[in-house]
Structures
1.
Amino acid sequence: MLTTIYAILFYVATLTFVGGIALRIKQYWSIPAPLKIPTTPAPTTKRGVWFRMFKEVALFESLFKSNKWIWVFGMLFHAGLALVVLRHFRYFTDTTNLVWAWVNWIQPFGIYASFAMMIGLVGLFVRRIVVPRVRYISAPSDYLMLLMLIMIGISGMLMKFVSHTDIIAVKQFFRGLMVFEFHPLPADIPLLVHLTLVATLMIIFPFSKLLHAPGVFFSPTRNMVDNPREKRHIAPWAAELEKKN
Amino acid sequence: MSEQENSAPTVEDYLNPLARPKLNPGSMKDLHSFEASESHQEKLGFPGGLVDDWHDVAITKMGDLLTKYRGFRVYMDSCVKCGACTDKCHYFLGTGDPKNMPVARQDLLRSVYRRYFTTGGKYFPKLVGARDLTEDVLGEWYNYFHQCSQCRRCSVYCPYGIDTAEISMAAREIMDTVGKGQKYCNEIIGKVYDVGNNLGFPTPALKATLESFEEDLEEETGLDIKLPLDKKGADILLVTPSADFVAEPHIDGFLGYAKVFHAAGANWTLSSVASEAANFGMFIGSYENMRKVSLRIREAALELGVKRIVFGECGHAWRVAYSFLNTLAGPFDFLDPRYPSPQHICEYTWDLIEKGELKFDKSRNDKYRLTYHDSCNVARATRMGDKPGGQFEIPRNILKATCNYYFDMEEDTIKEATVCCGGGGGLLTDDLMDLRVKGASPRMTALQNVRKEHGVTHMAAICAICKSQFAKVMPKYDFEMDNILSVHQMVSNAILLEGAKDPEDDDEDDDDDWIPPTPPPRPPRGSAA
C-alpha cells in the first residue's frame, strides 16, 4: 500500500515537474521581447552574453553587488543543494558503472554540503523575519517554501546522522520505478517525511516563484546582446504593426 | 598626499547617501499626480475617462501584455522576494515608504497577476499574496507607479535582472487603456503630435529663438555661427530636447553643440518636424505611441536628406534613440554607414577631440570644480562608443578635456550604480514636487560629500530632465539652482574657435552670467587635476 502510494506520488511529481517546466520554458521562449533592454553596460557579443549569464547563474554576480548577506546565504543554500542533489544520484544510477563513478567520489562533499545548505536556509529564514524590509514583502508562501526546504534538509540529515534508513531498499525502490517495477519502500518516518516534501516541492515548482530557475535564462535585461544600432531587432507583432501603416 | 585640515571630511559631516531609512508605511500613499483629461487621453488613442468595465479591460490588457513582452511575463513569475532590491530605489531611500521598494512596487501588479493568471493565486490567494483588482488597487497602482522614474537601478542588483521600469511601463499602459492616464506624460505626447515638441514650442517661435541665439553667439565670439533649421541637404540632423531652446543650463549646452559643429566645419540642421529628442511614449509603456513619436525623426531625416542623425543631451531620449530607434523607425540604411545611427553628441564631440580637431583653453573653466552625474537611462540602458561602459567614460573624458578640476562622487552612486535625479520617467511635474525633492536626496547627499571633500562647486549632466530637476531641487539641499551644468556648456566655455575674439576682452559684460561658486573652492587635495 505504502509503496504504491509513493510510487504514484513520484510518477505524478516527476511528470508535473518535468512537464510543467518544459511547458513554462516553451511559453517563455515563444513570447517575443520586442525591444532591446539589456541592463548596460552589457556584452556586445553573443559569447559575452553567455559569460554574463554564467556569472549570474553560477556566481550570483548581481546579488553579490547588491547584498553580501543574501549572497552568502543564497550561495550556501544553492551550492549546498546542488551537491546534495548530485550526491542523491546514487539512488538512481548504477555506481559500479564507470560513467557514474563521480557519484561515489562526490559522496563526502555531499555530506558537508548538507550543512552548508542548512546554514543558508536558516540564514534566509531568519533574515525574512528580522529584517523589516524583507518581512514587509514576504507572503505566507515565502516562509513556507523555506520551511519546507528546511524540513527536507532535517529529515534527510536525520537519516544520515541519527536514525539510518535501509538505503539499499530505497535505491531498489527508485531504480525499480524507473523500469516500472515496484520494490517495497522502508516505512521509516524520516524517509516518508523527506519523500513527501520532495514530491510536493517538485509539484509546486512549475507554479511558483521557484520558476526563477528557468526564468533567469529568459530575462531580457541579462540575455540580450547590446547591439541595437548594428542590428535591427523587431518582434513579429511589431512587424505586423509596420505593415498596417 | 598633503594633509590639509579642512579638506578631509570628518566622520560627523559625512553622510551615507544610501543610508536605509526607517520604514514609514503609507507615507506616500496619497501622492496623486494630476490625471489626464479627456482630450489628453483621446489624442493618444486612449479612452477619455475610466471605462465602465475597467476591471475586465485591465485584466484583458494585462493578459495581452503577458503575451507580447517576454520580460513582463518572466518578471511576474521569477521574483523570489529575496530583498536584494529593497534598499536600491532612491524614492524608497528618500521617503521610507515600503511601497517604494522595487519589489513592493512590482508586487502591486504581481499580486493581481497571481490572482488572475496563476494556479496558486486562483485557488490560494492568501497564501501566495494574490488579490483581486479593486478600485483601491487601481488607485494604488496610479499613485505608486507614478512614483517610479524607470531608472533601472533596481534591475542592476536583482539576481534575475527584474526591471521595475518594465513593470511600471506595463502598469501605466494598462491604466491608459482603462482611461486612467497621467496628465503630465499624456499632455506632452499630445503636444508632440500637435506642435512637434514637448514644450509646444511652435516653429516660428523656434526660428526666432535660434536667430537670437545666433546673435548671442556672434556677440560672444565675433563669429557667424549658424543654427540652421530645416536646411535641406545638410549632412547632420541634430535632434535635441526642446528644453535646449528655452531652459537653463540646457541652452548653454546647446550653444556648445553649435560651436563644436562650427569648429568641425559640419553642415548640420535642426528640424521643425523633429524638434524634440524626448519620447514620452516610453514612460507610458506604449509601443504604438513611442513608435509614432519616433517616426517623426525618420520622416525628418528623409525629408531633409541628411546622412547622419545626432542626438543632443537627453537621458531617456538617448535610450529610445540608441536602443529602440532602429527597431521603431528603422532601418536607417539611407544614412551614412560609416557612422553609428543615431549618434550621441558626446560621441561626436569626443571623436573630434580624439582626432585633435578641437582645441580648448581649460583655464576658462577654472571657476568650476566639477563632478558628473550619470543620468540613469544613459548609464543603464544605453552605450556610447564601441565598448561597454563608454557611456561613463566619454562624457567624463570630455569634461576632463575641457576643465582642470574634475572629481567623481562616491563609486556606489555613479556609473551603473548611479542614483536617479528624482525627476525622470514622467515625474518632472510640480504636482509631484514632494517626491522629487525626497527622491533627489541620495544624489544630493553624495554631492554634498564631494563638496566637503574636494570643494566641488558644480555638477554637470547630459539629460534635460536631470538638469531641470536639479535646478529645481538643488536649493532645497543648500546648493544654488545654477550649480547644475550641461556637459557641452563646459565645451562651449573652453573651446577655441579660429578667428574668435578672446572672451576676456569683454569680461565685464559677461560677469553677470557667472555666479560665484559656492562655497569657495578649497585647495585641491594632493594632485587634483
2.
Amino acid sequence: MRVATMDKPLTGIRIIDLTHVWAGPLGTRILGDLGAEVLKIETDTARGLRDMRIPTPGMYPGGDPKDEHWNRHGEFNKLNRNKKGLSINLKTDEGKSIFLALVEHSDVVIENFSATAMDRLGLGYQSLRDANPNIIYVAMPGFGTAGPDSDFVAFGPSVEPMTGLTAMMGYSEEEQHTTAMGLPDAVAGVTAAAAVVTAIAQRKETGQGQHLDLPLHEGTINLLGEKYIEAQLTGSRPAVLANRSASFSPQGIYPCKGDDEWIAISCPDDSTWASLVSILAIEGDQYPTMAARQQHHDQLDELIGSFTRQCDKHELMVRLQEASVPAGAVQKAPDVLSDPHVLDRDYFVEMGGEHIERVPYPGSPVKFDGQRATNWQRAPKLGEHNEEVLRDVLGMTDTEISRLRDDGVIANLPPTIEDSRRRSKN
Amino acid sequence: MRVLEFGDNIAAGYCGRLFHQYGIEVVRVDLSSDIAISDIERSLDIFLNTGKRRVAIDYRTEEGRELLARLAQKSDLVVTDCLPALLDELDWHHFADAMRVSITPFGLDGPYRDWQGSGHILLAMGGYTYIIGDPNRSPLSMPMHYVEYQSGQFAYTAALASFISDSPSSEIEVSMLETVMTLSQWSTIYWTMQQKIRKRQGNRMGNVHPVSLYRCKDGFVYLTIVPTFWHNLVAMIDRPELLDDERFSSATARLDNMDALDDILNESFLDLTMAECLELGQRKYRLPIGTAMTLDQVLDSEHLEARHYWQNVTVPGHGKIRMPGAAFRKTPAMAQPDLTYARRDDG
C-alpha cells in the first residue's frame, strides 16, 4: 500500500505566472492549490481589465474600495490565493533581465496574452529557452499561436459563440443564448492546470521542456466533443432543448414557492419516473416509456410545475432525493454558502488580511487521502513579494532592490495618472 | 503506467480520455449488460472511449467485482465515477494498491453523499444555473457535460500531479458539486463581497457594456466592448455621432443607457452577415467580437483545419469522422494520429 500523505503534490515546482483576467489566473490558482510556488508577475498599472490608477466600480468588501482599492477587489482575491506577487516592468531592459533570471530558476512560464505579445516584448519561447533549456512554456491565446485567426482579439464571452455552444443553447431555436459569463475562461483555466502537470510529468521522463499552445477556443470545443460527433453521425445539428435532455424525460427547471425560486429535476429512467409520479400524486401510467414522456414533455412540464409551484425548493429537493429522484434546488449565492452539505464538508475557505476583510472563498474540489488542503495564503498585494523573491531566488541585495524600486523597475503601488504620463513620454 | 477506468457517469470517461491522449495505457471496464446504444450515446462513447482498451465486466455481481479487483491490482491508477454506495460494496478504501481516484456528485461524505446528481442538478445546486438566462423567465442550464468534463479534468490533474510526486496519495476524491462552486466567477464572491445576489441578465455581462449578443443578418454576433474598444466599435458601425452623445460618453453612461445603446446596435448589425461582422470587426477594427457559429461552420473552419485540430476517427459502419483532438498541444501544431473506434461489445 502507498503511504497516505500530501495535499500539495506540486511542492518544489516554481511557476512564473504572467496571466490576467480569468482563465490564466484560474489555471495558476489550481496549480498553487496543489502546492506549486506561483510567482505572479504584474504590471503596476492594471489588474486584468481594471486600471489600478483609479478606483472603478467593482466587488469590494462591503462595496467599499477604501484607499488600497487595487488590493481589495473580490475577483482578484478569489483568483490569486496561494501565489506570490511581484510587480516588474517588463517593458524595461532591466525588468526583462530580472524576468529571464527568474526563468532560469523556474519550471514553468504561463501567459494568456495575445498570440504575438511575448515575441513583441522580446520574451518569446526562444528567449525563455536560452535562459532555461528545460523550461515549460504554456501560451493561452484566444485562438492559438498559429492559424489564420490567431490574431483575433479574444475575451471569453466573445469566444464562446465561436465554439458552437451558443447555437445549441437557449429557450428555443430562435432565441439563442450565451452563458453570459465567458465559459471558455473557466474551461481553459482547468485545462491549463492539466497541461502544466502533463508537461511536468513528460519532462520527468524525457528531461525536456516544451512549448504548449492552449487556445480558449479549442478548449471549449473540446467540451462539446460528442455534439460534433453526433452532428456527423446523424447529419443534423443537435436541437436547442432549453432545459430538456435528448436522453432523459422529463427534465426541466420548475418554479417553486417564492420569488424567482426554482428546482431542477431530471428523470433518467422509468423507475425514477415512477418515484416522481408517486410524490407528485399525478397519473403517470399514460407515459410508461421514455419515448412517451419525450413526446408529451409540454404536458408533463405543466403537471410537474403545478405541483412544484406550491413547494419550498429545498424541502422538495430533499423529498425527491430521498426517493432517489435527481433533483436540486436552483441555489442563489447565500443558499450555496449556507448549504448544510457544503458546510459539513468544510468546502469554503476564509481568508483576509489587514487590507481586506476575512470572507469565505470557494475552496478546491479535490481531497487527498480524505484531507482538505491546508495552509492556504490570501492573494498577494501588488508587489508584496518583490523583495522576498528577488533576494531569495536571485540573491539580490537590499541596496540593489532599493535601486530597482527607485528606477521604477519594480513597484508596490500603482503610479498616479501623472506619473504614468511622464513615464510614457520618457 | 496503466490506468483502469470504470463507472457510468461520464466524468471518469473524460479523465481516462485525457490519460489516453497523453500516451498512457487506459483500460476501460464497461458493464456487460449495457450494449445497445442510440446515436447520442454512441457519439459520447466514441468521444470518450476511442483508443482505450475495453473489457466488459458486470461488476455488480460478486464474480465481476473479483475480476475488477484483479484488474485493479495490475494497474497503477484506478479512476471511477460510481456512486458512493457501489464504492462501499467494492470496499473502495482498500480496493487496490493502486492510487484510487473517485469522482462523485457530492463527494464521499456529507449529508448528500448518496444523492443523485447529474450536471443539470449540480449546476443548479452550485449556483451556475440561477444566473444564466433572461430576467423574469426560468433559469437556463447548459446543453453539455460541463460538470462531468471539468470534474474529469480536475481528477486527471490531481491524480497525475500526485502520481509523479515524491509522496503520492493513496486516494484522491473529486466532488462534482464542489467543481461547480470552484469554477463560479460571479455568484458567491458577488455575495460575500457586497451582499448582493447576482441575477440573470440575459446575454449581458452587466458590469460593462456593450457586452452582449446581437442579431445580425444571418445569425448572432457577440460584442465584448470594454472601454478601450468603444471608439473602434463606433467606427465599425459608422456612427461617429455616438462619440458626442452624452448617453454613451463614459463606461458608466453606457451602462446606465444599455437599452438605448442596444437598440442602436441591434439596428446596425442587421445589415451585416456573421462573416462580414468578423471581417470588419476582427480584421479591420481589431474588436473582440465573435459570431454564433453552428457546429457545421466550426467543423468547416479553415483556422481549425490549418491548426490540425480535428482528429480523424474511423467508425465501423459509418466511415471517417472528425472529433476534437487534444485541447493543448505542442507547437508547432502537427496532425494528430488517426484512430479507429471499437464499440464496447467489440472490446
